[in-house]
Design brief:
Keywords: Thiamine pyrophosphate. This is Thiamine pyrophosphate-binding protein. Belongs to the TPP enzyme family. One of its GO terms (biological process) is L-valine biosynthetic process. With about 550 residues, the chain is α/β, with parallel strands linked by helices. The protein is built from 20 helices and 20 strands. It folds into 3 domains: about 170 residues, Rossmann fold, CATH 3.40.50; about 150 residues, TPP-binding domain (Rossmann fold, 3-Layer(aba) Sandwich), CATH 3.40.50.1220; about 180 residues, Rossmann fold, CATH 3.40.50.970. The strands form 4 sheets. A 6-stranded parallel sheet has the order 3-2-4-5-7-6, with helices on both faces. The protein has a 6-stranded parallel sheet with strand order 11-10-9-12-13-14, covered by helices on one side. Strand 19, helix 19 and strand 20 form a beta-alpha-beta unit. The model has no long low-confidence stretch (mean pLDDT about 95).
Length: about 550
């Protein structure tokens, strides 16, 4: 016989052998059993980092992993990261301690209610079938593409279980559903594409596994293509326009605005991708095919629920080849040209665009990019190249958080396969996740941290300071992150002039081993293009509200 915790570990080991966690009373027995059974265990220093690291691990590796914390404070510390994973529909298994079966103690909270509030399905193990319940939870996470909480009541964790047999994991339905276009939907979408003179395909994260089919479809109908932030540059296609939305070049946006039919595959069409309604021409037909149950933007003219690989394959068979391709007539010479950025701005600090430009030149080409949230968020995706599918993640954007992206570096390192992990962060977010700088230094074999240090919460300065709100609550005393990095055992480089980038180049040329933190002292006065779109949308909304109140 084995303990409840050992039974859980035994059941999960073949399907999720990577754990990110922080030990406490509620998960001590589970982590003991997991380590003894050979799981790869990565310790973090704050509970939110356990979930964020597991979130990133899946986004890069496409494999399920486990996050684990204790009950109570350990659990609640991880809730923001759990909400992000739920909003982003990231499969992971959150194995956590819970109150004993006898009921809540004075220091317990109603974790079941919180799970429901953040839309994370919950499974509670019992003494009789703990392994089977663990497998059901893992299958649910994969099938529904969501984080699932597996709760271990405190009084059961070390008890013996009589469970001897486990269900076959395949019988529990771990494979996500792959609905197909019905004949009517296929005919209607095919007809719209056949009638297009200037078709465009916009692909998102949901189309990553369908990339070859999407490329073939685009070539057949003579379409231009572009990708959302999390799927940028997915296609090796001569008429791919790059990233779409708030991080796009103006030429990218100009071309998409000329399209008469836009086919969206596996993209959620949020307000940033849609440029607050300005991405698609008003006269164009917008088609969305996605696993969602309904259209995710009111601008969509035709929606169908379908697996992208299946939909693209069927469309390839049913859509006639275009007689001419508008893509071949387009001037794409300046498509990806962006401002280099000034050497210094009027206040004597670095231009963040120039920081991004210099780092693109210096960084190892074989890289994984991870992002925290904040005003700086566009500089990496806009200026830095990637190394293929699943090589850029932004943990925190689905829930509009900052600080969660720091732990992404830990999860990315476990899935990087020899690539250099590059983190972009702001000073505010990095201070929130500072505890896990130690985790980064301990676990990342080759990594670069670029901190856009403007001594402020930059997004708030641009969004609210610009309309007259007092900026004092938005400011941060300038922190010497390079010194903090050195204290943790990393290489720390303070970058205040272009010449200082030579030190970063030397580190890369020496082999890029360990972690190098680049503390870039940037101006707070250079506003990102996507922020201009946000401000313009806010002005329009305020104007509309004012006119209604008159």
């Amino acid at each position: 016989m084995s303990s409840v915790s050992a039974a859980i570990a035994h059941a999960l080991k073949p399907f999720a052998p990577q754990i990110f966690g922080l030990m406490g009373n509620g998960n001590a027995h589970f982590l003991d059993a997991a380590v003894r059974q050979g799981f790869t265990y990565t310790a973090v220093r704050h509970e939110s980092a356990a979930v964020s690291a597991a979130d990133t691990y899946f986004r890069i590796s496409n494999k399920l992993s486990i996050a684990s914390t204790t009950y109570g404070a350990g659990y609640t510390n991880a809730v923001t990261a759990l909400a992000e994973a739920a909003a982003a529909r990231t499969p992971l298994l959150f194995v956590t301690g819970d109150a004993p079966t006898s009921g809540l103690r004075g220091w317990d909270v109603d974790q079941a209610a919180i799970d429901t509030a953040v839309r994370a399905p919950r499974y509670v193990v019992d003494r009789e079938t703990p392994g089977a319940i663990a497998l059901q939870a893992a299958a649910h996470a994969l099938r529904e593409q969501c984080p699932v909480v597996l709760a271990i009541p405190y009084d059961l964790a070390a008890l013996e279980t009589s469970e001897t047999e486990l269900p076959d994991f395949a019988d529990l339905g771990p494979t996500p559903p792959a609905p197909e276009l019905n004949s009517t939907q296929l005919e209607q979408v095919s007809s719209l594409l056949a009638g297009a003179q200037r078709p465009h395909i916009l692909y998102g994260r949901g189309a990553i596994d369908a990339a070859p089919l999407v490329k073939e479809l685009a070539a057949k109908i003579g379409a231009t293509t572009s990708g959302t932030l999390l799927a940028r540059d997915l296609l090796d296609y001569p008429y791919d326009l790059g990233i779409t939305g708030g991080f796009a070049t103006e030429r990218n946006a100009e071309i998409i605005a000329q399209a008469d039919v836009v086919l969206t595959l596996g993209a959620s069409l949020n307000q940033f991708t849609m440029r607050f309604g300005g991405l698609v021409n008003e006269s164009a037909t917008l088609i969305q095919i996605d696993l969602a149950a309904t259209a995710t933007n009111p601008r969509v003219d035709y929606f169908a629920t379908a697996d992208i690989s299946a939909a693209a394959a069927h469309l390839l068979q049913s859509v006639p080849a275009a007689e001419a391709s508008w893509a071949k007539e387009l001037d794409l010479a300046a498509l990806r040209t962006r401002p280099l950025g000034d050497a210094k701005t009027a206040d004597g600090l670095l231009d963040p665009r120039r920081v991004a430009s210099e780092m693109e030149r210096i960084l190892p080409a074989n890289r994984v990019l991870v992002q925290d949230g904040g005003h700086f968020i566009g500089w990496g995706p806009m200026y830095w190249s990637t190394s293929g599918a699943r090589s850029l993640t932004c943990v925190g954007t689905a829930y509009q958080s900052i600080g969660l992206g720091i732990a992404s570096m830990v999860g990315a390192a476990a899935a990087a396969d020899g690539r250099t992990v590059v983190l972009a962060s702001g000073d505010g977010g990095f201070l929130m996740g500072l505890a896990d700088l130690e985790s980064i230094v301990r676990t990342v074999t080759s990594g670069v941290i670029v901190i856009y240090n403007d001594s402020a919460y930059g997004a708030e300065v641009h969004q609210y300071g610009s309309i007259g709100l007092h900026e004092d609550p938005m400011l941060i005393p300038t922190v010497d992150f390079s010194a903090l990095a050195q204290g943790m055992g990393a290489t720390g480089i303070k970058v205040e002039t272009l010449d200082d980038f030579g030190k970063v180049s030397a580190w890369v040329e020496a082999g890029a081993q360990g972690v190098c933190l680049v503390d870039a002292r940037i101006s707070a006065h250079v506003r990102a293009p996507y922020m201009e779109e946000v401000l313009e949308a806010n002005r329009k909304a305020a104007g509309a509200a004012a006119s209604q109140s008159d």
